[in-house]
Structures are given as C-alpha cells and as structure tokens.
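We include the entry.

. . .
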Amino acid sequence: MPAVTRYHHAMRLALALVLATTGCLQPHSDPPPGPDPYGGWTGPQGDPLVGCASDTDCGTQVCARDRECYPAASVRLAHTAWTVHGAAASTTSCANRPHLFIAFRGPNGASFGFAPVPCKNGEFTVDKLPTIYTEVQLGTDGTSSGPTAAIDRTTGEATIDLP
C-alpha cells in the first residue's frame, strides 16, 4: 500500500476509534426548519453534527434531543408555554415576532435549542430533555436575548411571558 494511502487509512481508523470511544457529542447549532425538528441537524457550514440520532445509537441508554446518550431516568418530557404581554400567543399577538428561538440551559454553559419556533403556537414540547437542563429561554429568532424561566423539576413545565 502506498504511504499516502496507508496514512489516510490510519487516519480514518483513528477517527473511527475516537468517535466510538467518546460516545455522543453535543450539537453546535439549532436544527433547520422542517417537518421533523429533531432530525437532520447540521453545523454552521452545513456539515453533519456528530452525536446520536436514535436510541439504537446509545446501547442501553436513550438518545436525548441534545443528541447525547443518557440513562432513561435522566431524561423527561418538558413543556414550555408562553404568552405575549399577558395575552395568549396568536397570529395577532405575535405579529412583531412571528418566529422565535427556544434554548435550554444547564450547568457549565451547556445549552442547545431550536429555531425557528412559530410564536403563534404558544407552546413547545421536548419529549426527551435531559434533566441537566434546568432553564429555558425564549426570544426572537436571530437574536441571543429573551426572557428565561426555570423548568419545574417535578412537572417539566415552564411558562414565559414575552415582553
């Protein structure tokens, strides 16, 4: 085998070994809009993100929506609801902000989120949110600020009033 081919083969093998031993990695961007907000995530340059895509990638654990593997007891259903200036979210109340972002935050700067989220829906549910995420932020898509709320440890519920 030529030296260059052996080098490329060795590098591919080393990368496969690193990926196999490190487990799932956290995504670095929000998923693009589409019918399945949890699938097909790509990085800023369009490159596929590394991490689990389904529970089968995690052995005896589950693939949470942050694309990391966790024990089943460490994920939960979480539901965020919002109002706009105290009024129910609707096409009218959301006219100035039709699309939002939603970000979940945890310890040591851990975060991930989704965008665009239609404001008029007034709610967003994540079926497998890791329990390490204890806060949710909601804001206008394309910005990095917005109100936050604690996620109730028992119910997984959070409520935010958008200004």
About this structure: Residues 3-22 form the longest helix (20 residues). Residues 1-47 have pLDDT under 50 and may be disordered. The beta strands are 62-63, 69-70, 75-84, 87-88, 99-105, 111-118, 123-130, 135-140, 148-150, 157-162.
